[in-house]
Design brief:
Layout (H helix, E strand, L loop, with lengths): L10 E3 L5 E4 L4 E4 L5 E3 L6 H10 L7 E3 L1 H19 L12 H10 L5 H6 L1 H9 L8 H27 L5 E9 L5 E8 L4 E9 L5 H14 L4 H4 E6 L3 H9 L3 E4 L1 H9 L1
Parallel strand pairs: 6-9, 9-10
Antiparallel strand pairs: 1-5, 2-3, 3-4, 6-7, 7-8
Helix pairs in contact: 3-6, 7-9
Main location: nucleus
GO molecular function, one term: zinc ion binding
InterPro entries: RNaseH-like_sf, Znf_BED, ZnF_BED_domain_contain, Znf_C2H2_sf
């Protein structure tokens, strides 16, 4: 209305539900009978007496302006959300301490010393309810434990496929690290997935016969037999691996990419 004034407080008497403020003077008009009531200092006593005597309206609760109710609703919603969801709730608590440390080492490439000394990693682990060991040796123990768990999962997956008649392909790659240590990496394949079975440490000279033994021993760790379970094997084209292919009973292929690389270099 033209003569309606803005409310001056956030919390008002229930009487204001039945009265409208007049801008020109400290008074209000009853919405039911249009009577004008003086309200010095915007006191609601006169309005309450009028409602009780003239209209038999009597209440004790205070009403809030719609804008205040909306604000309170938003505030309560924010409070409720802050209680329901915390930053730590977003963290995956189902991961074990061994899984987290194992991923830091194997996936993210952190060294064992870096994991043991990182204050950020320690704090993050505490947020998940885990206490990270300060000793690199104990951190390495966690990695070994996770390796054994992951290895059992791989063995289970492989045996599950073996039990339904699946046979596997094999890919091998020998390489030398920056510290001049030699390894052979062994991967097992099916048509839809593969498993990295890890690296076999190689010391001294490795003739083809020794290479066959290294591969057979690594496969045996995962309950795979080279002759019975593997139908084909891919290696590089080095002469020792060509001889390796002649010693094993499975089908052997040299890597085309390696051959092309040798041809152009």
């Amino acid at each position: 209305m033209a003569d309606e004034a803005e409310a001056t407080t956030s919390t008002e008497s229930y009487a204001w539900k039945y009265f409208e403020k007049l801008k020109c003077e400290e008074s209000s008009r009853c919405k039911k009978c249009r009577a004008v009531i003086k309200c010095r200092g915007w006191s609601t006593s006169g309005m309450i007496r009028h409602l009780k005597s003239k209209h038999s309206i009597e209440k004790t609760e205070n009403l809030k302006r719609p804008s205040d109710r909306s604000h309170d609703k938003d505030t309560s919603e924010v409070k409720r959300n802050s209680v329901q969801q915390k930053m730590t709730d977003l963290l995956k608590k189902e991961e074990t301490k061994e899984e987290i440390v194992g991923k830091l080492a194997a996936v993210d490439g952190f060294s064992i010393n870096a994991i043991a000394k990182s204050e950020f990693i320690k704090t993050s682990m505490l947020a998940r309810g885990y206490k990270l060991p300060q000793s690199p040796t104990l951190v390495m123990d966690l990695v070994h434990k996770q390796y054994n768990v992951a290895k059992e999962r791989v063995i289970f997956d492989i045996n599950k496929r073996k039990n339904v008649g699946v046979r596997f392909g094999l890919s091998l790659d020998e390489y030398t690290s920056l510290k001049n240590k030699r390894y052979m990496n062994i991967n097992l394949h099916t048509s839809d997935t593969f498993w990295n079975l890890g690296m076999a440490r190689i010391t001294g000279s490795v003739p083809a016969e020794t290479a066959v033994e290294v591969v057979e021993n690594k496969l045996a760790e995962f309950q795979v037999n080279l002759e019975r379970d593997v139908v084909a094997c891919v290696t590089d084209g080095a002469s020792v691996m060509v001889k390796f292919g002649k010693l094993i009973k499975t089908c052997h292929h040299t890597c085309y990419a390696h051959g092309i690389h040798l041809a152009v270099t």
